[in-house]
Amino acid sequence: MTSSAQRYAGVLFEVATDRDEVEAVSEGLEWLVRLVREVDEFRSIWLHPVLGGELKMEILDPVLEDLDSLVRDFTALLVQRSRESILEDIRDAYEDMCLQARGITRVQAYSAQALDEDTRGELARGLSRLGYEEVVIDEHHDPSLLGGLMVRIGDLKIDGSLRRRLDDIDEALSRDA
């Protein structure tokens, strides 16, 4: 996630909080991301590199007219500043801020195979002992890890993967050779 996306999301979250529109903005961003993903015609205009911001908004306005006014204004700002490509990152950062405001931490868990319910519970209990009381775990499958688990919480990385352990052994053997 880019730092620009974090900044845009932070300002949007602050304004939405002041206006008591946090949920409406969340829903609007989600709708807009789905629209970009699923509607080819919209996506081609949204990401068009040559169309000017004013013309682009003129074309897109009829589709966006039912959006919450804050989301519509924010969309126009993104288009005006040619930041359309970071919309999904902005949505992700905004959602993380919504979770944080409710005391919930988003955790990225990477494993070689799907986590079973016991492992998910064990991970949540371990994170609770580290001070992360309530977590949402986003699972990612990465066969290159071979086994074990790698967890990311913001900038913090906890790597308990078999791949890392093998790399550590390899490095130690190389030093001793």
Structural commentary:
- This protein has two domains: 97 residues, N-terminal domain of the delta subunit of the F1F0-ATP synthase (Peroxidase, domain 1, Orthogonal Bundle); 73 residues, no CATH class.
- 60% of the residues lie in helices and 16% in strands.
- It has eight helices and four strands.
- A four-stranded mixed beta sheet has the order 2-1-3-4, sandwiched between helices.
- The model has no long low-confidence stretch (mean pLDDT 89).
Shape verdict: elongated
Radius of gyration over C-alpha positions, nearest whole angstrom: 21 Å
Q: State the secondary-structure class.
A: alpha+beta
Taking pLDDT < 50 over at least 5 consecutive residues as the criterion, the unreliable ranges are none
Q: Count of helical segments?
A: 8
Order of helices and strands: HHHHHHEHEEEH
Structural domain count? 2
Can you identify the CATH class of the largest domain?
Mainly Alpha
Helix percent band? 55-70%
Mean pLDDT equals: 89
The named CATH superfamily of the largest domain: N-terminal domain of the delta subunit of the F1F0-ATP synthase
Under CATH, the topology of the largest domain can be stated as Peroxidase, domain 1
How widely separated are the two ends? 40 Å
Strand % is: 15-25%
What is the number of strand segments? 4
Q: Summarize the biggest pleated sheet.
A: 4 strands, mixed
Architecture of the largest domain, CATH level 2? Answer: Orthogonal Bundle
Please give the order of strands in the largest beta sheet.
2-1-3-4
